[in-house]
Every structure is written in C-alpha cells, then in structure tokens.
Amino acid sequence: MAVYTDVDNDALAAFLAEYNIGEVLSFKGIAEGVENSNFLLETTRGRFILTLFEKRVAEADLPFFIGLMDHLALGGLSCPTPIHARDGKALRRLAGRPAVIVSFLTGVSPRKPNVAQCASVGAALAGLHAAGAGFGIRRDNALSLAGWRRLVNDCAADADKVRPGLAETIAGELAYLEARWPRDLPRGVIHADLFTDNVFFVGDDVSGLIDFYFACNDFYAYDLAICLNAWCFEPDGAFNATKAMALSRGYTGKRPLSRAEAAAMPLFCRGSALRFLLTRLYDWLNQVPGALVRPKDPVEYLNKLRFHTGAQGPETYGITID
Amino acid sequence: MAVYTDVDNDALAAFLAEYNIGEVLSFKGIAEGVENSNFLLETTRGRFILTLFEKRVAEADLPFFIGLMDHLALGGLSCPTPIHARDGKALRRLAGRPAVIVSFLTGVSPRKPNVAQCASVGAALAGLHAAGAGFGIRRDNALSLAGWRRLVNDCAADADKVRPGLAETIAGELAYLEARWPRDLPRGVIHADLFTDNVFFVGDDVSGLIDFYFACNDFYAYDLAICLNAWCFEPDGAFNATKAMALSRGYTGKRPLSRAEAAAMPLFCRGSALRFLLTRLYDWLNQVPGALVRPKDPVEYLNKLRFHTGAQGPETYGITID
C-alpha cells in the first residue's frame, strides 16, 4: 500500500483537460492497492480514483483490465467504471506511466469480516462471474500451474530458510496438484484476488468490488476457493466453518456448482493456498531494499495449505453434493 | 508518507459512536504526513481526516497541537479544525494510539509552486503568526540550537560517509550560529515545517495550512526563513530570487519585519537550512530496515546552506531594510 509516483499539478491539470470531468478540488495519494499508485481525485464534477500503473503490471494486459471494468459496470456490477476522455480513450499516460481514471465507490473494507459479510461476498462473486460472461478479450491465468512451477523452481534453493522442509512441501504439493488439476470445468472471467481489501461494504452489504488487476480466465470454482482462503480463516489461523458455509451458500444461491465443481473444491482450496504461498514466498525471498511495501508472511498460507490437505471433502467448505 | 496502523471497522464504529458526526460511508488511508497515520473519513455528515499519532510524536505535546488548531481555526485561519466528541474532548484513543478527527480541507499541494503561490504562502504565514497570538500553551522548539547540537554530536562519527568533510562543515556552521543566534526578536507560535505539502491551494490562493505537529514557540522571522528554504529553490538547486521576493513581500505586506528581524534573515536562512540538513542526515544514517518511508536526501539542504553562507544580506531574499 503505497504511492510510488509523484504527480505534478501542472501535469495533472493538462491530463484532466483531456476529460469532461471539471476542475481539481482535491488530490490525495491513497494507501490502496499494492501494485499501483492510486489517488483520490475530487473535481467540480465529482469524485474519482486516478491509477498510475507501475512496472509490475504488464502494459499489454491493460486493455483487458480496463475493458473488463467497462464490461462489468455495463453488466450492472458495482465496480470502478473507467472514465473515457473526450477522444473516447480510457487508457492514457501521466507522469510517464499508463493511467486511468475510474469512478469512486462508497463503502469500507472489513478488516475482520463477519458471517453476513461472507455471505454477501459469496453472492457478489457469483454476480461478478455472471457479469463477466460475453467479455470479448481473453487473458490466461499466469498464476496457475505453469506459473507455480516457475515459482517453485525460483524459490527451491532458499525456501528452507523460511521454514525447514518448505522446499520439499511445495514441490510435493505441486506434483500432487499437477497430477489431478481439472481440465474441463466451467470457466470464464474470474477476479483471482478477491481479498477483503478489494471489497467495499455499507453495513453487511457489498457496495463494490475493486482491483481487477489479477483478473483472468480460469475456473469459476477456483475463484470461490481463493475467497474461502481469504475470508474464512481467523487471525489465529483457525478455519471458521460458519463463515465458509455462509460464503459458499451466498455463491451457490446465485450460481449453483455442478457435481464436478463441488468435488473439485478441496483441490482448488489447496491450489489457491499454494498460489499465495508461492507468490508471498517469492516476494519474501526477493525483498528489494528500500521498498515501500512490507512483504506478507508466506507461512500464513503454508498453514492454510496444511488445513486443506486434511480436509475431508467439499462439506468442509459448506458445500454439499446432491 | 504512509499508513502505519490498521484500523478495524468495529473499532472505528465504536470510536465514532462517541461523536456526533454520523455513520461511516468511506474510510481510506492516505499518503499524507510522514509521522502519523492519516485516513480520509467520509460519513453521512461530511468529510474528515482521522489522524493516529505514531510513536515519533510525544503524547505530552498533543494538547498543544490540538489546542493550537482549535485556537487558529477560531482566529479565522483556514486549518484543520479538531472535532470534539460528545464529552467535549477532541483527543481520544483508537487502535492503541492517541487519535483526533479534524475537518477536511479542499485544495491541492503544489509540487512546483509558482511565483503567485509563493506570494500567497507568505501572506498565509503572516496570517498564521497573527492568529497564533494569545494561545495559552507554550512549546519550546526542540529543533533549535540545543537540538542541533545534539544532532551534530549524534551524526559526527558517520557524517563523512554521506559527503567527505560534512562533519567539519556542520560543526563549523553550528559554532557560527551559536555565537550569533538572536535572543530577543519578536516571537510566538510558528509552524516550523511549512513545506509545500503542508499548504493547500485552489488556483494560486492558499485554501488551508495543515500538519501543525512541529509547531512551537520561536522567532517569527525564523519561520519565514524555513519557508524561503522550502519554497524558493528550484529542483536543480538554483535559488529563485523572484519567488523569494514574492514570498517575503507576501509576508511583510501583512506583518512588516523590524530592522533587527530583517537583518537576521540571512542567519535564519542558514539556521533553518542546518536544521533540515541535520534531521535528514540523522534519518539517513539511522535508516530502519523495512521502514515505509524513504529518507530524504540531506545533501539538498547542504547545498541550500552553502547558498546562504554566500548571501550578501537580507536583499538576497527580497527583504529591504529601510
């Protein structure tokens, strides 16, 4: 959470002159988003978020991300709506970086979501999957099996510095998943990073989903597994089965899972736990001196992975197979 | 610029229940202020800034800072106004830290101030000095001569790692200033840190002054010297005499300097350059691994100090002695 790039006022004024959104009243860097610089922009016409894309986001992916937000907003999802400039373009440049202005969303992210909020986010995830249908651009998930294999190789030499035996654990887990990963379950656009800080609530109701910069095409049920990992473990590491049941039922109430999807949930929970374990491990082992973001603890996801390894079946996650 | 402390939603709701400011609609950490955590808080009643005081601010000083903002706002200065809770207190606790809610100010901070903005900030500084009169609490400037002596001692062993000869330069400069520092010029409440990021503008007019957490009692003209250092050097290190004249005349148009104050300006510019050189040098030499704030370059203020050492007199700063 940081602002990486300073924006000069003259440059901002020149940039905004391309839009029909009025004059600047206030402009503040905000601590939201790990990969980009975000600013809260208030103009005489309303409030907006200005995002500058820093180098971790591939420019070639930006038309997918921005087109997706356009598509989802048109489909009725409450998400940031890209603001198009006078020439029709939403993706522009500012301070030497790709830049986009999107609509401001009201709401707050829960640090400790309650059961009702877990139910709401499950339903919102199903709404996102429905709204993504028909989107014309495709983006493969770079952080699925092939990406994990690369991360496992990159981390192999140093993983045991974090926890003795970790290299062997992740190599074994990846081999297990590679042998069993499904090929033909329902798929489409997924968020792929729907952590609590990417969901806004007013009370217990979801008021908006943000940060689509990991969105991609993959299995819908895998996205649900990411949410179970992100929303249903307590700070002490305990898995809260009540929250899991609420989240799963919130989802399946709007988009029922097929038998095959339900059966795959334990595997998807293991896979998504490995995915975040690996990216956190990589960031932990490759810390940049002077970086503005503290790396997250990979061991949190090692513990989640261990929980899923022992799960009995989809019932563990509040999912029943009829 | 960072957010050091996470605020849980339940804790925030309980905290706000002590106030008459409505329900939360939005809550975002903002990249403003180096010493504290700041959040933009939108409620059903309006917009506010919530500040959590981190450990670098001494709790004993908080009644001065908060009382001062109350006093200045009552005196007509556009500055954050502390919001008092139902029990009348403005200083409370949240997330284990002292906390205050203040009013939100519109406006943007210039990265590259223009001449008209320099004139405006000079006038605003004089307005601050006038509005501070009669404030009943006193806070000595911990970063005047005695504080510099301490910093010079702390940095002496390692200063030459930053620039060969730096230890000797700062020791000599401090001795020069100690021998000549005035004792009886007009004094009162000064801001002591009025850098560009602490001033908001709408166009070229000052819309508000913020961040009073270095405010203290000291010479008024010394505060003007801090501004000359902060506002009148270009990014390439050149001193912009046009901006200095505009800033000084903006100030003296509202609060004329005495002959003795005018004569002391070159000394005050040297002193304030040394002050920021020393604190930046200290932070540079004492970097905390994993810190969220990048230390600022001390050499910028070494170069400013060198400029002032060669100044001919107050005329260098656009100040004439009648």
Automatic annotation (TrEMBL), chains A, B:
InterPro entries recorded: Aminoglycoside_PTrfase, Homoserine_kinase_II, Kinase-like_dom_sf, Pseudomonas-type_ThrB
Catalytic activity of the protein: L-homoserine + ATP = O-phospho-L-homoserine + ADP + H(+)
Top-level taxon: Bacteria
Keyword Amino-acid biosynthesis included in the entry's annotation: yes
Entry keyword annotation includes Aminoacyl-tRNA synthetase: no
Keywords carried by this UniProt record: Amino-acid biosynthesis, ATP-binding, Kinase, Nucleotide-binding, Threonine biosynthesis, Transferase
EC numbers for this chain: 2.7.1.39
Any one of the GO BP annotations: threonine biosynthetic process
GO molecular function terms noted in the UniProt entry: ATP binding; homoserine kinase activity
Domain Aminoglycoside phosphotransferase, residue spans: 27-256
Pathways involved: Amino-acid biosynthesis; L-threonine biosynthesis; L-threonine from L-aspartate: step 4/5
Xref: HAMAP family: Homoser_kinase_2
UniProt xrefs under NCBIfam families: PRK05231.1, thrB_alt
Family designation: Belongs to the pseudomonas-type ThrB family.
This protein's name: Homoserine kinase
Biological source species: Zavarzinia compransoris
Gene that specifies this protein: thrB
